[in-house]
Amino acid sequence: MTREPFVRRVLGDRPFAEIGEPALALVHETSRLVAVGGDVGSVQWSGGATADSGWTGHRAGVYERDGLRCRHLARSRYPVRSLAFHPVLPLLAVGTGRYDGGYSFEGELLLLDTDTGDVVSALGDRREVLGATWLSGTALRLVMAPEDDGENPLAHEQGHVAVVERADWGAVGKGSIGSEELDDAPAEPAARTDRGAEARGLLTDLAAATGRTWSLRRRVWAVEALEDGRALAALDGVRAESWLPSGERQWAVEDGAGGRQLLPASDATSLWTNVERGPSRAGRGKRPSPGTARITRIALDTGQVLETLLPDEPAVLLAGGSRTVLRTVDGPRKPPARLVMLDRAGPVAGPEVGGFDVFNHPFPVRRASGTYALVGTDPDEPHRDKWVVAASADGTPRRLFPHSWVPGEHHFGGPAAEIGRSLVYAGEVHHGHGPQPGGAYVVRRSLNGDVRWQYRTDSPATALDTDGETVYVAYTSGTLVALDAEEGSVRWRRELEVDGVPTVALSLVVAPQGHVLVGTVDGRLLECAGSPAGRQGAA
Question: Residue 102: what pLDDT?
Answer without folding.
Answer: 86
